[in-house]
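Teaching note: in complex prediction, the entire set of molecules is handled at once rather than each chain in isolation. The prompt given to students was simply: 'Predict the structure of this complex.' The entities are:
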Amino acid sequence: MKQKKNEDALVARIARALAGTKPSALDCGLGDDAALWRPTPGRQLILTCDWFLEGSHFLRHKHPADAVGWKCLARATSDIAAMGGQPRCFLLSLALPGALAGRWLNQFLSGLKRASQALHCECAGGDTTWENKVLIGVTVIGEVRRARAIRRCGAKPGDLIFVSGTLGEAGLGFRQLRRGRGMARPSNHALRKHLYPEPRLALGAWLAERRLASTMMDISDGLSTDLARLCKASGVGARIESVSLPRTARLPAAEAEGFALHGGEDYELLFTVGPRNAQRLPEKFHGLSLTCIGSITKERRLVVETGQGIQTLQPGGWDPFR
Amino acid sequence: MKQKKNEDALVARIARALAGTKPSALDCGLGDDAALWRPTPGRQLILTCDWFLEGSHFLRHKHPADAVGWKCLARATSDIAAMGGQPRCFLLSLALPGALAGRWLNQFLSGLKRASQALHCECAGGDTTWENKVLIGVTVIGEVRRARAIRRCGAKPGDLIFVSGTLGEAGLGFRQLRRGRGMARPSNHALRKHLYPEPRLALGAWLAERRLASTMMDISDGLSTDLARLCKASGVGARIESVSLPRTARLPAAEAEGFALHGGEDYELLFTVGPRNAQRLPEKFHGLSLTCIGSITKERRLVVETGQGIQTLQPGGWDPFR
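The expected output is the structure of the full assembly:
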C-alpha cells in the first residue's frame, strides 16, 4: 500500500484491518513502494481489475458498507473463477470522502476482510486518496495450471450450454433493494445474492482441471448479453430453451424468465461442454445445480425457444443503474 | 479488458490503440474475462497500483490528454523502479465522460501507448465505465530476481544517502503550468519533467542487481516527506546537507532549495548505500547524476545542515492539489 501524505495513518489502519493470519506468498506487502509476491512455479497468472463506483455500481444509502467491501472483491474474483483459476492476492484502490473514514470504513474493511478470507485472496497493497464519493478499483491476481485456463473462444456447434445455480435472483434482489426504504438488509435469498455474491471458484477450477468445458465466462451483465459475447468470441450462435432456464420460484414464470435472461450480477458460470464430456457432468456440484439450457449453433445468432416458437434473443443485459 | 455493455466498441478501440507489436508474455489479453500471463521462472512479482484522478492528480484543462496517458503509467511504473525491478504489464481502469470519448481519448491512448513502449510494459487488460470526470487507476506488474528487490527498511547509521537527477524541477514545472493560461506545453525542461516524468528503471535495476543499495524508494511526494518514510521504515534518522542538494539552476538558490526539499513528482530515486559500496557508485549513471546528499543517523530525526546551522527537517512534501 503506497503511503500518501496525510494518509499514512489511514493506510496503517487498512493494513491492520486486512492483515492475514495464514502463511503468505507475500514477501513484502503494505507499507513499501510495492508488494513482492512469489508466483507458484508452472502456473500462469490471471490478471483482472474491476471498477466499483458509488452511484454506478452501488448506492451509499442503500448498500451496507459491509456488503460494498464484500462485493467489490467477490465480483472481481468472479473473473478468476471464469478462467478456471484460483485467486491469490488483490490490490485495493480506494478513494473516499473524509466523513466516511470512521464507521463506514470500518464496516467496509470488515466485509472486505471476510471476502478476503473466504476467497483465500490476501491484500497485497493498494493506493488511497480522498474524493467526494467512494471510488473503488480492485485488481485480483490469480493462478491456473498452464494451458488449463478456460477462455471465451472455442465453443463449437453442437456443444451444450450450461449455467450454474439459479439465474435472475441477484436482479430480483436489487429490485427489492431499490423499492425498499433505507439501508438494505440481506433478509432473503435474492437480496443476499445481490449483496453478497459468491464467485463459483470451486466449480470453475474443477471444470478447468478436468478439461470439461470448451469455453467459460461468468454472468455479470445478464445471460443474454454475456452469452452474446461468448458466441462472438467463438464465432458461433446459440439456441436457448426457455423452459430449461433455472429461474427463481418467487416470481410468476414469465417475469422470472425475464430476470433469468437479462438480470445481471448473478456471478454464476456460463460454460459450454462437448456432447461426450456432458455425460461426465454431475447434476449438482457440491450442492450447486448445473443446468443445460441449450446448445451452440453454427448460425451466428442467438435464439430462444419458447412455447410460442423461436425468437431472436436480443442482448438485454440489465444494468441496474442504467 | 472486461467488456461492459454498450462499451464493447470502446474496449475494442482501446485494445487496438494499445496493441503491441513485440512478442508478448500474454497468452490472453484484452477481450476475455481476464488476462493470462506467464511469469519468468525464478522471479518475484512486484505489484503496485496508483490512482490518477482528474482534479486531484491532474487538471483536464491544463494537462494535455497525451501527458495524462503518459504520466498515469510512468508514475505507477516508478514504484517498480523503486524496488529495483522491471515492469512487465499493466491493467488500466478507466472511467470517463462520454464527451471525452473522441479526441481526448485518442490523445490519451497515444500518450499511454508511447509510455507502454518506452517502459516495455504491455497492456494486459482493464475495465472501462462512464463517469462525469476522468478516473484512472493503473496496476503495474513487474519482476525482480529473487531476493534482489530493494525495500525501504534496512538503512543503517553511517549509510550515505543518494538521489538521482535534479530535485524540484517537476514542482517548478507544475507552478509554471498553474500560472500559465490554457493547456500546458512541454516548452522547457521543468514542464517536461512535470508532464512526462521518466521512471529511473535502469538505475533501479542496476543498483538491485549489484546489491549496492541498502534501501530505496522513489521521490513522489517530495524529499522531506519520502525520506521521513524511509527513515521510519528503517528505524533511523537522517542528516541532509543543504548545499549538496541537486537543485534547479533556474531559480534563486533559496527558492530552488525549497523545491528540492519539498517539491513532489520528480520520480527520482532516493537510496542509501553503505560506506564501502559508495565507492563503487559512479558520479553519473548513463548521464544521470547520482548525488550524495547526507547520511543516515542513529538518532531518529531528520535534520538539514544549512549555512545557518542545523535545523529539523519537517515533512513538507508539496502536494500540488492540497
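Point out the following to students. The mean pLDDT of chain A is 92. The CA atoms of residues 237 and 299 of chain A lie 5 Å apart.
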